[in-house]
Amino acid sequence: MHPISQPVVKKDHTEKMAGSAEYVGDFYSTDMLHARFVRSPHPHARILEICYPELPEGYCSVDHRDVLGENIVHVVEDDSPVFEVDEVFYVGDPVAMIIGPDPQRVKALAAATEVRYEVLSAILDIDDSDTVFFDYHYGRGDCEDAFSEADKVYEEQFSTGYQEQAYLETQGMSARYEDGLLTVHGSLQCPYYVHGAIAKATGLPKGSVRVIQDYTGGGFGGKEAYPSFLAAQLGVAAMKVPGKDVRVVYDRREDMEFTSKRHPSRCTYRAAVKDGRVTALEIDVRFNSGAFTTLSPVVLQRGIIAAPGVYHVPSLKVRGRGLRTHTVPTGAYRGFGAPQTFFAIERLMDHIAADLGQDPLDFKLAHAAKKGDPTSTSGIYHYEVPLPEMVDKVCEMSDYRAKRAAYAKEQGRRYRNGIGIALWFHGCGFTGSGERDFIKAVVGLHKHADGTVEVLACNSDIGQGIKTTFSKVVAAELGIPYDQVSYGNPDTSRVPDSGPTVASRSLMTVGELLRRAAARLREEWVDGQEQSVEEHYHEPDFMLPFSLEDFSGDAYPTYAWGVSAIELRYDSLTGANDIVGCWSSFDVGTPIDLAIVTGQMEGGVLQGLGYSSMEQMATDANGRIRNNSYSDYIIPTSADVGELAVSMHVVEFPFGPYGAKGAGELPLVGIAPAFVEAAEQALGARGINHIPLKAEEALEYLGAAQKEAHR
Amino acid sequence: MVDRYAPTSLAAALDLMAHEELVPYAGGTDLMVDEALGRPFVFLHGIEELKGITDNEDSFIVGAGVTYRELLAHPATPELLKEAVAQIAAPAIRNTATLAGNIANASPKGDGALVCFAADAEIVLRSAETARRVPIASFYEGRGKTVRRPDELVTAVIIPKKHLAGYRFEKVGARKALAISRVSFVGLMTIEESVVAHLALAFGAVEDVVARRPAIDAMLIGKTIEAARGAAEEYLAAWDEAIQPIRGRVSAEYRKQVCLNLARDFITCRLG
Amino acid sequence: MSKTQGSSHDGATAAVMSAANEAVTTATLPTTAAPSVRAVSVSFVLNGREVTWEGDPSAKLLDVLRDDLRLTGVKCGCREGECGACSILLDGVLVNSCMVAAGRVGGTEVTTIEGYCTTERFKVLDATFARRSAVQCGYCIPGMVLAAEALLSANPHPTEEEVRTGISGNLCRCTGYNAIVDAILDASKEGEGLW
Hints:
With about 270 residues, chain B is α+β, with helices and mostly antiparallel strands.
């Protein structure tokens, strides 16, 4: 292992441990005003009139009439308003806000605000959707030929549910307008996204907007786009009450019902098989975008690029659609569209293998892409694809092959075991040429006269340890002690735009910029002198240019790889399961800190396990999220997994700092298909093509299998 | 002022309750789930008389102030009760929650109440003027409703020990900790000289009140093992008929199926 | 209506508390108080210092600690006893402060992370959590540390399973728990004699 992988004490350890790190809800000021939203109770309705109650002194309302800039929250497109004007599009759509000093009273006044609506018909299911936000197509080879020549054709449908980020700290933001400057701080992943959104909504010049990231209690994608909404709304409010802090901290229910979560999906896959090989795939991917586009285009792009999985299939025809419904807008969540399609392709491969009487793992390995093979978008896997070695490692850790064989035989009277395995990748960094064309990241290093060096970037530490890993990279490149490098919470008035904290890009892309900056600073280093260096992004020149028009070229510079085996034990009386173990091998390039990376991998795996089964999120007749509390949206506790083991495999990426690739999203992506494969074996079922897999469904499968056995 | 709401003797508490409608606060873990601001609590934690655990030859008596944590730590706590309590919520809740509070709140999902139903426990109710013992089956009038009068306090729970030995406890939750029961089950069966001497099944989280049907259990009581085996299908059919599950996050059909599966498995294992 | 008086001799602390308290007085009382409810005065020992708080006895201790006494190391994650972020020690026992009414704490000793972080035991946990990189977003950590303290004080040599049970009411969405469990197991060894 590279020396830089040696763990260190994290930069933010002490203050988080002692409880002195200030999250947005922890700030205190004597003149704080609290905000509460007035939201639509209807999934779709026309706003006829807003009637505010009489507001006591010190209290005021905020709505679209107060938006001084454009009534738009810029995400990728510009369809989301700051406050709705004459129509609402989902239950929870913000119409207005009440602000004032007493939070209880603010809440009561918001509840007393009467909005008269004319209810309109609502579309809650993507099957009924008449609005296609995005419709992408790509392919290669000749699918028609392949299907007509096939020995056998398989067609299956897959569906996945919502997943809620369930970060421990809910969304929160605070804004203050004073002396022409609007300062916003809060729980967020992307300071400059927020900065841009506020400037647009308030009409303030960019120099009059300052965004500071507070300590952030988890994000997982949920604080990528949503904070732009809160910040725009609070920015508008703050300008109405100059000189006062206006803050909103969501309660858990509000957070779970009205903030973005993972897109539910429905996919149809058709496979042509000839001589025991999959020769073509026709894939139709549909994501429920909810009421607004927000991040759907980019989530969908990643989803469909990953749709054929790790396999080299000669002919492909892929379509992906993001569909509008009158439900809460969906958005970014760790994995960003890929968990949905990896679920589908892995299940399909398992089923084809079973039908052909082949071992599913061998079948998958036989189809896995290798270095030099084309990617789904006719780019190239430029670097080693280490799946065979990683599979060997996972088999050794889990005893997969022996267990798979044993559980295929007679099982115990009450408990039934099963084991499954899945293979996947995660494309590192932004899809396509986003870095080059849109982000254009800039970083800086500032060396003080005393020889300490400050990192100037805007990537936020949301728990993933970026403060620590950035500092390690810079210290290593400069050859100075780690303690001599610092990286505080980003403040847009002090740091350049190094891009958002998303897409597993921060360390690989921004970290490399910092390494290069440090290399320059080392050369220019003069003792006792204050010095600054700046570095700009350049796309690595080995890449085949990516075209979003026809989805061709290198969608990603490189890939992180994952293999997990999961063993389950089902109770045939209750349908409940024990997760006996989950054993994984991950390649994220060089771990810049082995303890941090291991923690990321373990945490991501556990979220994937939750996604597979216990994390159920249903909607009511109005499309409103019903599972809106921690007692109703069930995430794993410390007692829920028997053994959770992770092993790191390292294929260095020459364009990442010290060989590092993207890491954060990878571990979640392929857990669900491994889980369901294990469930299928344990339950004696085939064709379980949906998640979350509920206990009551498991019991039905068990009942069906038992009836089958009696026959 | 604090004394008024945090009495230090049972007499003082009952006196308060005789004059004002107050909400008894023992562990608080059910009450505080809701935003409770403004509720007129009377805090019971300072009352020594409610903190006792008494282990008699034929009964185990739990004072209303005894927490789950204390029950788990007590050497005489019946194993069945320990096993059920150990799976309730998580340590921080068990540290303050009480058995009496769990019962008095009349949630259908309380696993402490489930054990008490299976064991035919009695609830002791006291007011400034009166004292009475109510069989737990008569204590409930429906979901969230009990026979406790506003001036009364549940002071103790009396659990008969006679039939607790051959128990089975099962809890089906959505995860391994911090889980609210979707179905919970207690089965008690005693076989003496090849005859079913005692049988009691109880199902939690299935109906508005714990499901306990002595009349159904009576179908097998007094029968030889062999005769009971022969009547087992009829017995299970009677339960199938009797259970009317509530629906919630899991379906009524699922709840019922699990109840019947657990009942069948228990009966089959015991009768061989 | 609600005033805080530090009966300790620490004037600075008392001043901070009453200043903080005046600002949030209206926030801690309901807009429509039930007729039988009135403010009571509750005295307890908070992180080793005697404090007196006045207000509605049904207020959540979580709010009293965070809003009135400005102990923001006590985190709010759900307000319904389902996440453990607001865990504190009440007479040495782990409780969720959102599940405790203010009227319940009269005469007790309350320890929050702000008090606990000055102890020798904390230093051991601090070191082992650091070495295992057990702290990610940090939001669950104050509660998690107090859950570890509660566990180790009752059981100085827990098994892994006992550790997992001990922290099972403290949700962490970041770590997958392994690092936290290992850090607590390490602390039980390295803190030999402290618990």
